[in-house]
Amino acid sequence: RGVNENGTTQRKWREQFLRRLKQVGLLQEQRVVSQVKKRIHFILLSAPWHLLCYYAEEISLRAPLQVVNIPLTNWSESFLSKLSLPSPLSQNVPNPPLEYYTCQFRNNKLERFLGSDNKETFFKTTQRHILYEILARTPYGCVNRGEVGIDRLISEEVFTAAYPLHEMPDNPVSLQSLGLRQILHGYWSKWSCWRRYQPLDHIREYFGEKIALYFAWIGFYTAWLLPASLVGTLIFLLGFVLVSSDVPRFQCFRLCLSVSFVSLQAGLLFDNGGTVFLSIFMSLWAVTFLEYWKRTCSYLSHRWDCTDLEDIEERPRPEFSAMAPMTMRNPVTGAEEPYFPENKRLNRTATGCMVIVIMVNLLIFRVFHQNASVSLTAGAISASVLNLIIILTLSRIYTSLAGILTRWEMHRTQTKYEDMFILKVFIFQFVNFYSTPVYIAFFKGRFVGYPGMYNTLFGIRNEACGAGGCLIDLAQELLVIMVGKQIINNIEEFISPKVKAWWQRNKMRTPQMAGTQTMMDVSPWEADYELLVCEGLFGEYLEMVLQFGFITIFVAACPLAPLFALMNNWVEIRLDAQKYVKEFRRPVVERAQDIGIWFHILQFISHMAVISNAFLIAFTSSFVPRLYYRYTRDSTLRGFVNFTLATAPQSYMQQHHNISCRYRGMRDEKGEYLPEFYELLVIRLSFVIIFEHVVFFIHRLIDLIVPDIPEDVELKMKREHYMAKQALAENKVQHLSFELYFL
What we know:
Shape: globular
Strand content: 5-15%
Oligomer: single chain
Number of domains: 3
Helix content: 55-70%
Number of strands: 12
Largest sheet: 2 strands, antiparallel
Strand order of the largest sheet: 1-2
Radius of gyration: 31 Å
């Protein structure tokens, strides 16, 4: 439509929407801020008491019945307290939020809820965000065309933003008078708080359960990285001792390719008995970590009143409502809603899957072609850095492609849209980031051939592993990709919000205002409008999930990976905290029971880690060949290197001045495999099967022994259920009497 027509329609929708909000009962105040070229109209909305009570019952909000004097503690703090020792990580955060026994709010039982006599404080600030529920439900045009809700209006550019206000800073007289935002700034987002427990109850009280669960998860994950990084560092240091006492390292032969014996010794740092123990440890660590996170999540979910969070019928997405070609009656609500035919969605989803398969194949082709060519023409480190740059570039491209595909598939609800988008991005990023390490770990050096009969791929000879084996190449690639990605992401997270915020402020203010106006002169709604829009948790979860894959799937090649992850997470938590407290607009509170689809992705990675570590030990490391040689040839490993090398064929030596040379492989002088090769192959496959069966058995045993819900939480749930029955007993008796009378 034309510009004038579009502007008229937008004005009509805006006026209709505001008129409907007034009819619902919302109170409105309008403020105008004049700038050089435009005026910004701020509409301040507030809900009266009766409206809050109505919607609190409508969405099954839980209200307090009785205070529970159980502080939020960590397992380490509880353990140290039993030993009468102070915890160096704890801090006395002012105004800790109280925990309550709660039940679903009932307006006709208002007097039975704790604090109901004070209308100003009964509903917390995060609970007052139910006002957004009203904005999301209110129509502004034809309901059949999906012209409903503030989200659709923002997407149509009728409004530029809708957000709850941050608490404005003041000058507190005492610690008890500090606001929640001030507490979070002083006791959470500062760099000096890196070694302290996070004030999770305060985070939940200010930002809601979904954001609090993310910070609870990353804090829990970081704490579990402590033992993993300690074991990994000890194994790495142990490698130096094992290198100095390793018998095979003193056995030297003339190889058919020029090699550095320094790399041979460096390879022993990563390929020794200690890394085998670390692989087993980290495989068990991964599955145990997830089991205990389930317990922690259930504890927090109940503490924050999200255990029995009801599945409320979700509204259609604004983009879905705008693009749906037809309407259909909703079988749950009975209302006419925008509808997209299911068979068309299935066809689009199938097409999207084909695109994913094609892109994954292109990624795999890139990895094989690049590793077959780049490493032969450039230094190993340079090739790894170049590979990282390509990976990060493709990462942005594939994320945009996943967004286009998911929007095209026309998913009705935001939850379904987010799950499908996350799944697509994870598949792309899994292949993008892990394909090079997988190639080095399981394919590099496997199909080389032998002197005089080398195999080729795309016309280029296949790569062989160095003298130190493929684990040293894998360790180098992992360090460059993982640590390089972490450094780049942290620099971007530190600089990017500050640059964007500076640009946002300068766009909104005139040069004179920028030089003279202070934060005290700016109204709260104007100050918050200058902040950045909250980007959600997708990027934060994705970064941590990919890191979890690096430290579990390939830990055998890089024992220091958990240590680098630990140091990164200490920085990551502070950067995220600063963004949410100081640089983002306050997000609308979202309730959640858990971390959603990310938990299932973590489970998939933990299972992949078990299988990957089994194959790494069996086929990539020299652990199984050494064990085989020790028990069948010589327990001192003398002659082991000779056992793993074959002599080049006579035809090859004649071409090279009759000089005899050796190459990695168990072949005879004709290039045929020896019987020992097949014996080792059987042993390796047997090791893989035994390894993964043992780890999965222990995982299942832990799953059975450790209940998902702690015993004290179950007891508290029963107590809460009993109190809720007592509070609503009279109501139930009245219903029963009515039913008996009717009969």
